[in-house]
Amino acid sequence: MSAPPVNALGAALRVPLLEAIRAASADDSVGAVLLASGLKTWCAGADIREFGMPELPASEASLTALCDALDACRKPVTAVIGGVAYGGGLELALACDYRVVSGRARFSFPEVHLGLLPGAGGTQRTPRLIGIEAALRMCLEGKPVPAAEALGSGLADRRLDGDLAEAAFAWAGELLEKGSPSRKISGGPGQLPELGEAGAAFAAAREQIARKMRGRHSPELIVQCIEQAVACRDDFRAGLAEERRRFVQCLRSPQSKALSHVFFAERSAARGGSGAPGRAVERAAVVGCGTMGGGIAMNFAIVGIPVTVLETDADALERGLAVVRRNFERSESSGRLPAGAAKRCMALISSATEYSALAGADFAVEAVYENLDLKTRIFSRLDEALADEAVIASNTSYLDIDRMAAATSRPQQVLGMHFFSPANIMRLVEVIEGSHSSKETLACAFSLASRMNKIPVWSANRHGFIGNRMLTGYMREAYELLFEGTPPEQVDAALRDFGLPMGPFQMADLVGLDLGWRARELAKKPVGERKPGERLGDALCERGRFGQKNGLGIYNYGGGSRVPESEPMVAALIEELAAELGYRRGPPAEQEEIVKRCLYPLVNIGAGLLEEGVARAASDIDVVYVHGYGFPAWRGGPMHYAERQGLASVLEDIRGFQARFGERWAPSERLVRQAAAGGGFDKR
Ligand code: HSC
Fold first, then answer.
1. From the CB of 64, is ligand 1 less than 6 Å away?
2. Which end of the chain is more exposed for a tag (fewer CB within 10 A), N or C?
């Protein structure tokens, strides 16, 4: 197989592959067949682009037909796997008689991340080969299984060392010498249990789905397919037909369309740099060792880049590094990082209280709290301390990058890199282009983010960039609903039911009500200029309610728990403040209205960001919301969600809200135009 970049099984690869398998099968001079890849990747599975087509291309060379041809082949066929074998690629390998691997082989069924299920025999062959528990795990979690584990479970038969092609020919010779017979997984029940013995495994899988995959359709269908494998244990074809029926059901679902959209949106966002080659970072510096600074330093160390963390206060530095060490240890013990990684990573982190210690860094990230004066002072100090070619980035979440760049002699080497908390875990990084940031600087930041396994998204330098600018509209409406008479519990529940991991008030408690309060106090923001939501935040903080951190916020969190409990005093406070601010209170809003009131500002502001050129594509905005704010990927992000609703219908609702609530709901010109033109935001 040699169809760059990843041997996706589009028609262009399937047709010649089917011919080759049939020819080898029919040719008496062929004793054994090796199915190998000419690329680094063995096979990435079905071509996801074909799924976007109105109908799958009619061809007798379907992936199922390929697997059938391998199944029917009278010669022993060996899959020779030296890289990734994912999805339909793994299904192809399972239709072979043997699987031999190099240490670089990886197996996975990532279909679940696309709202799909393995649809070319994966749910039928895998449990026959490795048992139902392991098959359920692979199909439901979609995690890569490394070569050693695959050899242990029986997914792979032998590890080959040295030159893979040479070793594979030697293996084929061995097979021929031994007269090794065909060994098709479809030939019998293999590791499948009797129906009566399998109940507990399926119940456990369903329990896991309820806990971790709320709202998703394909996981339940995966379980059903594996149940069918057990029910049809002596009739492989019957199980296969059941799998195919459910695969088509998934393929046609809005969830699968949304998840495929996110897959391509992520890759398109990551290409959003200038196209210029990004200089590789060799040594980094981070200023600030608080939650964000520590997390960012961890990112550098995890990918092997030595990093110096600077805090002028030695005690704060020590405390921050202790947190970093604990986080590394936790990541290692939970399996997120491999054994020994915590020690290795800590060895790459050095600390300093003087700027002169940063001289060797070629990339510095400032990550102190949001105060422009402080940040500009730090930029000026960094400019003095660093070598001429070094890049300086700010981790600000909304401040003006150009003001910081102006404090340096190298504005072309300044930009924003807005990480999301916890920075060592969240994959989103907004990359902010300042007025003077050069193409090389942007390229350097994009390739650094990709190296850190993050998803970089370009944004122009405007207050709040993409994500936080949109968030203001979401939070504004959540507070409006509250003052109009909908309790916080109901607002949060509606958004959780929509698929968000938490509602806006749980999020406010998690972030900490005190952050905004302290900032407003520090800036001496006049009370008259504070928004209604800010007034509530002030009133709560004045009563010592800072959020989850001290167990008292909009909700109570008893005994360090994260489960929110209602607090009557807060309900009374909301009512009191609503009266003071002149709200007319009514009955609680319906669930549908809550969802639209909170989500449509995201769409409307998002459309405005496209119009202003702050975001380059609606798909970029979706990536920001999915990876930075927990918007359910299976809804595709706010812009994709609006497109699925129909932009004309979203606009009609927004106009209805404008009539009821005034100009804060004025529709963006871009939304009006796109709704009239039909189609989606990115199709002009
Ligand atoms: C599947 O297999 C369904 C089957 O079970 C059943 C089908 C049955 C049909 C029966 C009929 C009813 N397709 O990620 P990268 C592109 S579902 C098309 O940057 P990496 C990607 O867009 C599939 N394109 O590279 C990018 O293009 P760009 C299950 C694919 O080295 C380029 O390749 N498989 C593609 O970091 C490089 O990608 C998966 O979900 C695909 N399958 O990672 C695997 N895969 O340059 C998804 C990649 O134009 N892929 N591309 O932007 C991956 O996980 C990663 O891409 C790899 C490579 C780990 C393969």
1. yes
2. C
Angstrom distance (rounded) from CA 287 to CA 353: 10
Q: For residues 400 and 50, what is the distance between their CA atoms, to the nearest angstrom? A: 43
From the list 99, 60, 94, the residue with the least C-alpha distance to 82 is 99
Asked if 67 and 84 count as a contact pair (C-beta separation under 8 A), the reply is no
Average pLDDT in the 360-366 region? 97
CA gap 205, 667 in Å, rounded: 45
pLDDT of residue 683: 66
Q: How far apart, in whole angstroms, are the C-alpha atoms of residue 304 and residue 298?
A: 10
For every residue of 282-348, DSSP letters joined together read -SEEEE--SHHHHHHHHHHHHTT--EEEE-SSHHHHHHHHHHHHHHHHHHHHTTSS-TTHHHHHHHT
**Which ligand 1 atom is at minimum distance from the Cα of 44?**
60
Q: Best of 14, 48, 427 to mutate for ligand 1, by most ligand atoms within 8 A of CB? A: 48
Alpha-carbon separation of residue 284 from 173, 392, 404 (angstroms): 52, 10, 19
Q: Which of 163, 185, 184 is nearest to 36 (CA)?
A: 163
Position 59 confidence tier, pLDDT thresholds 50, 70, 90 = low
Compute, in angstroms, the gap from residue 47 CA to the centroid of ligand 1: 6
pLDDT reported for residue 486: 98
What does the alpha-carbon distance between residue 302 and residue 304 come to, in Å, rounded to a whole number?
A: 5
Does the annotation count 111 as an active-site position?
Answer: yes
| CA-64 nearest atom, ligand 1 | 10
Distance of alpha carbon 375 from alpha carbon 369, whole angstroms: 8
**Residue 54's pLDDT band (boundaries 50, 70, 90)?**
low
Closest atom of ligand 1 to CA, residue 46 = 2
Task: Assess whether the C-beta atom of 83 lies below 6 angstroms from ligand 1.
Answer: no
Q: Is the CB of 86 under 6 A from ligand 1?
A: yes
User: What per-residue confidence (pLDDT) applies to 278?
Assistant: 78
Please, which residues have CB within 8 angstroms of residue 582's CB and are 6 or more apart in sequence? none
In the residue annotation, 141 being an active-site residue is answered as no
How many angstroms separate the alpha carbon of residue 175 from the centre of ligand 1? 32
| Cis before 57 (ω within 30) | no
Residue 352 DSSP one-character state:
E
Interacting residues of 97 by C-beta distance below 8 A, sequence separation 6+: 76, 77, 78, 180, 182, 183, 184
**pLDDT average, residue stretch 556-566:** 89
**CA 581/CA 592 separation, integer angstroms:** 26
Query: Residue 273's pLDDT is what?
Result: 66
Q: Which of 19, 50, 111, 430 is catalytic?
A: 111
pLDDT digits (tens, 9 = 90+) for 384-442: 999 999 999 999 999 999 999 999 999 999 999 999 989 999 999 999 999 999 999 99
The reply to whether ligand 1 has any atom less than 6 angstroms from the CB of 5 is: yes
Helix or strand or coil: residue 582?
A: coil
* All residues at 6 or more sequence positions from 438 whose CB lies less than 8 Å from its CB, including other chains: 412, 413
The crossing angle, in degrees rounded to 10, of helices 132-141 and 218-231 is 160
| Ligand 1 neighbour 608 (Cβ under 6 A) | no
Q: State if pTM tops 0.90.
A: yes
Q: Would you say 392 and 386 are in contact if contact means Cβ atoms under 8 Å apart?
A: yes
Cβ of residue 62 lying under 6 Å from some atom of ligand 1: yes
Confidence of residue 274 (pLDDT cuts 50, 70, 90): low
Which has the minimum average pLDDT: 275-279, 317-321, 343-347, 456-460?
A: 275-279
- Terminal Cα-to-Cα distance of the chain (whole angstroms): 37
